[in-house]
Every structure is written in C-alpha cells, then in structure tokens.
Amino acid sequence: MHSTTNNDIDRTLGFTIPDRHARGRIARLGPVLDTILAAHAYPPAIEALLAEALTLGALIGAALKDPGGQLTLQTQSDGGVVRLLVVDYKGGELRGYVQYDADALAAAPRDPTLFALFGTGYLAITFDLQATSERYQGIVPLDGDTLAQAAESYFLQSEQIPTLIRVGFAKDEDGHCVAGGLLLQHLPEGEDGRERLHVKLDHPEWEHVAALGSTMGSDELADPKLPLETLIWRLFNEESEVRVLGGTPLSRGCRCTPDHIASVLSKFPVEEQREMADADGFIRVDCAFCAQVFPVAVREAAG
Ligand SMILES: [Zn+2]
C-alpha cells in the first residue's frame, strides 16, 4: 500500500483531560489547504500566513456547538504589507484569502515579522450562531509574534479562558502544503458558560497542561504521517485519563454557487442590477475567496 494513503489529514480531533479541567483540539490541513491557496498565486510569506489563519479557523471553529454556526477571523491593519485577511469556518468548511501590497512585501524582509506584515493591526474574531441568530465579536491587537498569539489573547481577554495554541506549517518538494495546530484550554469551572469572576493563570493544573502542550513541535503538527491520536498520546500519556472526542472532517467550502449569487443579486432592484451589468446584460460577480468570476444575467421584471 502506498504510504500516502495512511496520512492523517484534513480533520480536527477534540479531547479532554478531565482531571486537569482541560480541553484541547488538534487540526491538520493538507489538500484543503492546497485547494484554498491555489486560488491565488501567493508569495511564500503570505501563503504561510494564510495557512496559519486557516489552521486557527479550524481549531476555533470546530468548537462551535451550533452546527450551522460560523466563525470568522478578519484583520484590520494599517502600515504593513497585508490589507485584509479573512478566514471563515462553517460546519467543517473552510475558506479564506489575503489581499496584500506586493510592493510593500518586496521591500519587507524575506521572513517578515507580524509587525512587518500588519503594521498597526487588529484581529477580529466573530461567532455567528445560527440557532439563536446571536453574534459575538472580540477584537485584539496584533502585537505579538504570531496570529496564534493574538488568538490566545482573545480567549484570555474576551472569554477569560487561559489558552495555548501552537501551529506548524510545511511545504514539501512537490509544492504540497501541510499545516497543523494544537489548541489547549483550561476550564476549571466547567463548560456551562458561567461567568468566571476571576482567572488564575498560575493555576498548577493549567501550568502542567500548558507546559506539556508547549513541547509540541511545529514539525510534528505538520507531519501528515503522524496520526492526530499519536500526537495527543505523546503529550499526555502520563495523565490518568484523556478522553478523545469525535473528529470533524475539513473541506474547502465557499458560498459562491451561481444560485447563491443570483439570490443575493435578486434582492437589488432591477434598475440597480442593470447599472451593475456590462454591455452583454451580465453582472460579473467576483468571489475573492476562490478568485472566480460568475456572470449572472440581470433579472428582468416579471411584468
Ligand atoms: Zn467562492
């Protein structure tokens, strides 16, 4: 059997460590990453950045209990290379893209820092819950070394949950990308959503779990031959109990089907649709996520 068939790829796997009041999730992205990155000819630094953001999207999004809920990560920045980074996750489907200034990137160091990429930047993390139509958003500054650090800050500041996140990214000689991520959280008062009045970051059980989690190598996370269960086992095999929860398969998903675009456009009055259309009577709708253009015929008034 060819070895690649054994690869553990394009899924997330959750787990809990009950005695430590910790929960975690591991994600690994392969073909789904190649598909999303292939929509644009990104330079290496932008490719690695979007891979990190997509991995975060999978790690955080897979925690949504509402199956129709959506997680969105979006940056706002000024004075750096990146104009806009957007990633979203819904029911295992991921998509994302980056708009950047090619001249600014050419002038930046070969391996640019987060500050070089974003200048003064912020990361907005938004949860849209379908079941209740509620929206939660937290915004944190991009003042650390990585996007993952900004996400850790979000959980601590907005949700009072101590969080550790590690992300690894690799590209093999055939040009295939693999990214992996680990997320660990401490929930000493359970997961019932109660307000936490105080957070003790130096809680011994969290210190223990975070110390183990921080030994996870980025190369292990991005090695598709290492099953996700093996990574959890390597970290936590001395714990009295680790419960592995269900996994979620990941796929590239976009909502830019011709039907969806036609239904969005149909909400505009016909006169406005005509103004948007070209000489052929088609509105050309560009999906920034997958870099495709969809021509949609102007809806003519029924009578
Ligand atoms: Zn699309």
Provide an overview of this structure:
The chain is α+β, with helices and mostly antiparallel strands and 303 residues long. It has 10 helices and 13 strands. The chain has helices spanning 31-38, 44-61, 102-107, 114-118, 147-159, 204-213, 218-221, 228-236, 258-265, 270-276, and strands at 11-17, 22-29, 70-78, 82-90, 93-100, 120-128, 135-141, 163-171, 177-186, 243-249, 251-252, 282-287, 292-297. The strands form 3 sheets. It has a 6-stranded mixed sheet. Strand 6 (120-128) and strand 7 form a beta hairpin. Zinc ion binds next to loops.
Condensed summary:
The protein is an alpha+beta fold and 303 residues long. The protein is 29% helix and 32% strand.
Oligomer: single chain
Number of strands: 13
End-to-end C-alpha gap? 63 Å
The helix-and-strand class reads alpha+beta
Largest sheet: 6 strands, mixed
State the main characteristics.
binds zinc ion; five-stranded antiparallel β-sheet; 13 strands; alpha+beta; 303 residues; 10 helices
Write the layout of secondary structure elements.
Elements: E1 11-17, E2 22-29, H1 31-38, H2 44-61, E3 70-78, E4 82-90, E5 93-100, H3 102-107, H4 114-118, E6 120-128, E7 135-141, H5 147-159, E8 163-171, E9 177-186, H6 204-213, H7 218-221, H8 228-236, E10 243-249, E11 251-252, H9 258-265, H10 270-276, E12 282-287, E13 292-297
Parallel strand pairs: 5-11
Antiparallel strand pairs: 1-2, 1-10, 2-9, 3-4, 3-6, 4-5, 6-7, 8-9, 12-13
Bound molecules: zinc ion.
Zinc ion is lined by residues 254, 256, 287, 289-290.
